[in-house]
Amino acid sequence: MNHLLEVKNLQVSFFTYAGEVQAVRDVSFTLAKGETLAIVGESGSGKSVTSKSIMRLLTQTAKIKQGSIMFEGKDLASLPEKQMQNIRGKDISMIFQDPMTSLNPTMTIGRQITEVLRKHHQMNGSEASRRALELLDQVGIPNPEKRLKQYPHQLSGGMRQRVVIAIALACDPQVLIADEPTTALDVTIQAQILELMKSLQQKFDTSIVLITHDLGVVANMASRVAVMYAGKIVETGSVDELFYQPKHPYTWGLLDSMPKLHEKTEELHAIPGTPPDLADPPIGCPFAARCPYTMDVCYDHMPPYTEHSDTHRAACWLQDSRAPKIDRPQAGGER
Amino acid sequence: MKRYIGVRLIYLVLTLFIITTATFFLMKGLPGTPFDEEKLQQLPTEQRQKIYASYGLDKPVVTQYVNYLGNIVKGDLGTSFFYTGQKVTDIISGRIGPSALIGLQAVLLGLAIGLILGIIAAYRHNTGWDYATMIIAVLGVSVPNFVLAALMQYYMGLKWGWFPVAFWESYSSSILPSVALSVGVVALIARFVRTEMLEVLEQEYITTAKAKGLGFIRIMFQHVIRNSLISVITVLGPIVVNLLTGSLVIENIFGIPGIGSLFVDSIKMNDYSTIMGITIFYSAFYVLVMLVVDLLYGLVDPRIRFASGKE
């Protein structure tokens, strides 16, 4: 088995007063050593819930209903909390979306970094400080000695995200889950942070699960992509396959909604409609209601995956041999 | 930082000046005088004048006020009208001990139990633990402390004889009143800590702490509690002042010679100088505690420290 992480048939639901909300519905994917898997999708598609499930950081109202998350022979979906604590921050760690809120405002940067070192490497104070200094240096923070003693509010957003990355990388994790790591940052800072993540990944051979809704980030960072919609992975493939031979109409929509420089129109493309209510998910294809190519079968039956290569799969009835041949309108490929 | 404290101390003096002035003139507006007017009327005018003059009451109110301020600056709060010949400063310092001891014990006890209950309630949110603590909190706020005091006097004092029923005789006399006073504090603090902790637990940085693999205890003590303390300090300030300066109800029930009962007595007797003295003492204490509270904020929350304490 060469997969570092293997998520199989994952189902996660939130149990609310209004009833069960099926946030993640039968999601499977794998992650190999050193690769970057991007999970893309719009808000509410279940991408963040999927990533939090791997870390078992879901809120109390959420439950992993079914499925397994295999990591080094252990099933994280059912691992006792105590053992999970030994994995979090050490083997698998996480970078969060908003560096403004993801650092403790009343604790120095230094302590927030050394904390994780003391927990997992049983370092003493001075060892941990030395390592923290080294980490701050690695993530490109000037004046690390001074920064160690400062509080988060004294750092800019980009600097804070570097600190968050330093914390995540402190124990050389095998898997790094980055949940929209650049969404809250300025565009210029975004590029810097992405570059930093890339260079650190190459240096330490870390595997990254990158959660994002920004296809530009995907093209820049990922080797493979999984497109999520309404709690399901509707299409997955290598970056090239997904950008140049997308098979699912939802992926087409996503790609078309990226603004393009060479187009003269002022208008932005959008996918009409809204995602289905996951408290009462449709039995057929979740995208059927918004899809311009819907057939009768789409409403009643969830399409199975069709394989287009070893890595490329899509769940769409258009790919069925009985379906009419429909090509992607004004085929992309300008990238 | 020093500058900040300096500025605050100037404000403190200014506040006290305003309070003193307001109280002085308001008190002069009270009906009656410190004397038994009916008996005073029977005295010859000359003697009456003499009595007024000996207390400085024959002069215009403004002159009295200026004289009074002058004395305060010298640390003299005047002599009592009721406790003839005794200095107000002596009376207050003689009465502050019991009040301060009871108040301090009530605050510490209330804070300790309130914190524990609040933490339990927040951690076991929406469970039996949570509901039980909140019922205690509601009872603590809604049951008047004199009811509780009376019950404790009857059972723990009279029936079982654990503690003295009343009066100020030994240290054990302070226990029942302290406990009776602390119940309200427990309730208030527990509610505050619970609400605040629930909010902190929702914060992103708690998820970050969990993602580091930290256990519950570490997350609680290193991340949650400190961030929850900010609002607790806010409510604690007025509580400390209220309790340390004496509770009239509790002091009356337990027959304790504290500031609270002194204050009530002095108002009843129109004892001008004592009323003024206690008011000034109370205000000064309040403003000082507020200064301490603000400094504590800075200690707990670095964002406040750097905003106010640029050196």
TrEMBL record, chain A:
Compartments where found: Cell membrane
Main location: membrane
Protein's membrane topology: Peripheral membrane protein
UniProt-recorded Gene Ontology molecular function terms: ATP binding; ATP hydrolysis activity
PROSITE patterns assigned: ABC_TRANSPORTER_1, ABC_TRANSPORTER_2
Tagged with keyword Membrane: yes
GO cellular component terms listed in the entry, alphabetical order: plasma membrane
Keywords: ATP-binding, Cell membrane, Membrane, Nucleotide-binding, Transport
ABC transporter domain: residues covered: 5-255
Database matches in InterPro entries: AAA+_ATPase, ABC_Ni/Peptide_Import, ABC_transporter-like_ATP-bd, ABC_transporter-like_CS, Oligopep_ABC_C, P-loop_NTPase
GO biological process: peptide transport
Family label: Belongs to the ABC transporter superfamily.
Protein name (Swiss-Prot/TrEMBL): Oligopeptide transport ATP-binding protein OppD
Lineage: Bacteria, Bacillati, Bacillota, Bacilli, Bacillales
TrEMBL record, chain B:
InterPro entries with a match to the protein in the record: BPD_transp_1_N, MetI-like, MetI-like_sf
Family annotation (SUPFAM superfamilies): MetI-like (SSF161098)
Cellular component, GO, one term: plasma membrane
GO biological process: transmembrane transport
Compartments where found: Cell membrane
Domain ABC transmembrane type-1 residues, every copy: 96-297
Keywords, comma-separated and alphabetical: Cell membrane, Membrane, Transmembrane, Transmembrane helix, Transport
Transmembrane regions: 9-27, 102-123, 135-155, 175-193, 228-254, 274-300
Membrane topology: Multi-pass membrane protein
Coiled-coil intervals: none
Primary location: membrane
Keyword Disulfide bond: no
PANTHER family registered for this protein in UniProt: DIPEPTIDE TRANSPORT SYSTEM PERMEASE PROTEIN DPPB-RELATED
Family indicated by similarity: Belongs to the binding-protein-dependent transport system permease family.
Protein name: Oligopeptide transport system permease protein OppB
